[in-house]
Amino acid sequence: MKQWSKGIAFGAMALILAGCAGKSGTATDDEFGSESGSAGGALSWPDDEGGADGSAMPIGDDRASVVMNDRIVYFAYDSAELDDGSIEILKQHGRYLADNPGETVRLEGHADERGSREYNIGLGERRAVAVQSMLLIHGAAPEQLVTVSYGEERPASLGTGDEVWALNRRVELAYAR
Amino acid sequence: MRGMVLRRLLLLVLTWLVSGGALAELKIEITRGQGEAVPIAVVPFGWTGDGAAPYDIAGVVANDLARSGRFQPIPERDMLQKPTTGAAIDFADWRILDTQVIVVGQILPVGADSFTLEFRVFDVFRGEQLLGFRMPSERDQLRATAHRISDMIFEKLTGIPGVAATRIAYVNVVGDPRQPVYRLVVADADGENARVMLESLQPIMSPAWSPDGRNLAYVSFENGGSQVFVQSLRSGARKRVSARRGINSAPSWSPDGKRLALTLSRGDGNLDVYTLEIATQVLTRLTDWPSIETEPNWSADGEQVYFTSDRTGGPQIYKIPAAGGRPERVTFEGSYNARPRVSPDGKRMVVVHNDRGNYRIAVVDLERAYLQILTDGNLDESPSFAPNGQVIIYAAREGARGVLSLVSVDGRVAQRVAATDGEVREPAWSPFPVN
Fold this sequence. Notes:
Chain A is of the alpha+beta class and 177 residues long.
């Protein structure tokens, strides 16, 4: 009897795991293109000089590269202020959402590990709302956006110290598909 | 549909865990300040039945008394004699050891699984009995009975109720840190007897005891965002009490157990403190500021709700009448004071305080508005008062791992609680058991 319920338990766990796996779509991997975020570079086709047997090159999604590559914006300590770089990124996302009304995105706010956990939930939410406002300004519709705050509960970078904290004070844009 | 199936499976997991899941336990060691502890001898209890004694009562009692920080049990190997009755004590032997108090007792068989325990406590210097009791106990209650004996001794000797028979709830995070498993655990105050109340792949936060000790309120992200649940300790049955749009977080019970103070963002991203009558779901807004208002905690008399607000920039503690009214700022020292927990007597409050870049636990005297830093970590958080108001349990960082620590309210005695598995955080100390 106990063995049986144990089996169910692990089965359920696996299912839940599978359910979560698709969520952390923060496509910062290099395979999508250069760090600069320009549409050229690694995404260009190999030209004729490779000949017919030229090896195949991986290509990224053909949506705007910023939308594909830059899905995280970062914040200063105890701040929800967006810097110029983040505003530029969010402008692209806002326009993309305006052009693609079928897309929805979940704005996941996070804080670093310092201080109290529930207050950090507040900081994460404040950051998610700042991103939401910027996306609305640039054309996204309210029904395309939902905010959630994880506070310090889901760090992107493990460990401790200034560099780790800087990576964890963030909002992730998680597109639904 | 898929969500429903998942939820059902998750509940199956719970049922299994609640019914059979023992797990890695906590180990407590004293790290600071035993200097003024009273030497006490807890002599191994006699056993008048056949075979080995059914339980090491004296071992549990000695441990409990040591953990209080006020007593230093003498090791068994130093005992020159091992009396089990008052008549058998040779007080001169114990005076040589500088023992001030001696506890003797025995376990008497009644039935196969039932016993009578008796114990006596003596002042060694005067040779006088201070306390003596005889009590029945079933086999599976022997450990609990030992904790009760500890509390009776502690209260007799200090005038303060003991907390050995209370419990702690905490969040235990295990497994691969990239895909951790979150557990809500309830254990005895000595870390033993740990039981999993809930296990989830999404964060669990902010456990809070109901005043009768029968239910826990907590935050679970199992449905995608933060929602507040109340779960019965006895049956494991749980009820979702707040799943409003946006954030549902930071539950705290009113002293009459009928309401929760909690934080909601109601979809506009502005966190404010509300009260929720659990039975009727009647919601009352307490704060209405554009800043972050969160971490409510009800005062012991039920009149005030303390909370964190960053309306002036950094977080500070405020209070507001629970019936609604004007908020009043409570903390002024330093740039960061958050997560208030008011002491059971209402005279003090513990907070997370930023001490030159280090997050530490501080106690605030509410009458004199005096703040004293109690701990020396750099990422200390989540303080919770023991129900006798003498000790505070909190979460600390040890390397990359979260551990629990204890500190006496005067800062003199500190102890570390290490989990044998994963990290532990957000401890919440139970109220006294209701008899």
